[in-house]
Structure formats: structure tokens, C-alpha cells
Design a protein that fits this description.
Elements (H helix, E strand, L loop, with lengths): L23 H5 L16 E3 L3 E5 L5 E4 L3 E6 L2 E6 L7 E6 L2 E6 L2 E6 L4 E5 L2 E6 L2 E6 L4 E6 L2 E6 L2 E5 L4 E5 L4 E5 L2 E5 L5 E4 L3 E5 L5 E5 L6 E3 L16 H16 L2
Antiparallel strand pairs: 1-2, 2-3, 3-4, 4-5, 5-6, 6-7, 7-8, 8-9, 9-10, 10-11, 11-12, 12-13, 13-14, 14-15, 15-16, 16-17, 17-18, 18-19, 19-20, 20-21
């Protein structure tokens, strides 16, 4: 039966919210003379190098210095530096990994080796030997693996391997190019297949034609069922099959 029309892949997902831009003012709000967020009132203690230590209501401690603030709370450590001559930096560590925040860029590194870069323009996600790039404008996703690359945008999805190429267009058209030939399938179910020996056309109504290399006139192919293949000889018993295998193994092991 003829293959009906179909739709192609949807547009790639949009980028998530961009990282906020970390400013000196953001870090300065946690420096003296301001009390840290969640600090127990009047709990500050003067410590070495002119710093202050505060007890936090939910457990843990906050530390303040002239240009640095830190929080240690329930397995999580946060440290921020308000550098006047450079962009401020914030570090966040927990049992799962560490992240760095400077300007509008955030870098995450997990204990499993996962690496993520986040910027307003897009993200980069690396996991072992696979990398995913996501650009926000235009909205493009690229998957890079040892076996090939996948490009994903508004126009569809394209896979490029070592010896082949496949494109799945937004309108449902599929194009494949490999060492054996080229196949192009249209949304209405029709398809063209180019090979070294000729071109096969599958029309939308189910009719198939073939044009050999060197010919100009296509030939109509009949959609007739395959005939039953005649078995060359009587059926073999289980003992006969086992004997043939034993004989083949013995011949392979012989010097």
C-alpha cells in the first residue's frame, strides 16, 4: 500500500534562562557592614586576619572579609570574591561537584566528570567522549559523538558519520547518502534510490520503475510476491546437524 505523508522533526527546544550577570554589587551585599543572609542576630565573632564569623539559623557558618564572603552549610560551601579590578568570582561546592560563576558565565564540574558551560549565547555539555552544543540565536543543537555528529535546527536534523550522511527535513523529506548510493524519500511516500547499477523510483501511488545505467526509458516493476525457495535436499535431523558441526570444528583445529 502507498505510504502516506508524515511530518518531520519539531524545532529544537529553546535555550533555558541565561545565567545572571554576577556583579561586584551582588557580592558586596554579603560583605561588612551587612549581615549575611540567614545569620543569627548578634552572633558575629572577630577571627584571624580581620574577618567575621557568623552563626547561621539553619546550621552552619558564614565568614566575612573585606573582599570575600563564604558560607559553609549542610555539605555545601559557597565562596565569593568582590574584586574591584576584575570581574567578581563565585565558587559553589557540594558532594556532587563544583561550579564557578564569573560575569554571565557559569561552569559546572561534577564528580563523575560531567562538564557544563553556561552563557547567555548558549551551553556546552560534555559527558565522557560525547559533547552537546546548544546555541540560542539561531537555535541550533549539535551532538558530537565518536560515531558522528548530529546537527539539529529549524530546518530539520542531519547526521554525518564517517561514510554516510542522513538528513530529516522539517517537511518530512528524508535524504540518505552512503557508500552504496543515495536515497531520497518525500512526504507523499514517493522515493528515489540511486545506485551504481541504476535508479529506482517509487511513486506516491505505489508503482515502482527502474532505469538501468545507460538507459533513458524507465521499466515498470511488478509488485509480485516472492516464490517459495526450494530446499536443496531433505530436512536434516538434529544428529546430522551436530555431526556436521563436529566435523567442521575438527577440521578447523587440525594443523
Amino acid at each position: 500500500a502507498p505510504v502516506g505523508p508524515r511530518l518531520g522533526p519539531p524545532p529544537p527546544p529553546p535555550c533555558g534562562p541565561p545565567p545572571r550577570n554576577l556583579t561586584v554589587g551582588d557580592v558586596a551585599m554579603g560583605l561588612p557592614p551587612f549581615a549575611p543572609t540567614g545569620a543569627v542576630p548578634n552572633s558575629s565573632l572577630i577571627i584571624q586576619d580581620g574577618g567575621l564569623m557568623w552563626k547561621l539559623k539553619g546550621g552552619g557558618w558564614a565568614f566575612q572579609y573585606p573582599d570575600m564572603v563564604a558560607r559553609v552549610q549542610q555539605g555545601r560551601t559557597q565562596i565569593s570574591w568582590a574584586r574591584q579590578s576584575q570581574a567578581p568570582v563565585s565558587v559553589d561546592m557540594n558532594n556532587d561537584g563544583i561550579s564557578y560563576h564569573f560575569g554571565s558565565t557559569v561552569v559546572h564540574r561534577s564528580v563523575t566528570g560531567e562538564l557544563i558551560y553556561e552563557q547567555p549565547s548558549g551551553t556546552m555539555h560534555q559527558m565522557h567522549n560525547e559533547v552537546v552544543y546548544h546555541w540560542c540565536n539561531p537555535n541550533i543543537v549539535v551532538y558530537q559523538t565518536p560515531n558522528g555528529m548530529v546537527y539539529y535546527d529549524e530546518g530539520g536534523m542531519t547526521y554525518r558519520g564517517a561514510d554516510d550522511l542522513a538528513h530529516y527535513a522539517a517537511n518530512g523529506e528524508v535524504l540518505y547518502q552512503g557508500m552504496g548510493g543515495i536515497t531520497r524519500q518525500f512526504p507523499d511516500g514517493s522515493a528515489n534510490i540511486w545506485t551504481d547499477s541504476g535508479v529506482l523510483y517509487r511513486h506516491a501511488d505505489g508503482m515502482m520503475t527502474y532505469t538501468p545505467v545507460g538507459d533513458k526509458q524507465p521499466q515498470v516493476l511488478q509488485n509480485s510476491p516472492l516464490l517459495a525457495e526450494k530446499f536443496p535436499g531433505p530436512p536434516l535431523s538434529a544428529e546430522q546437524v551436530l555431526g556436521m558441526v563436529t566435523k567442521a570444528l575438527a577440521a578447523a583445529a587440525a594443523p
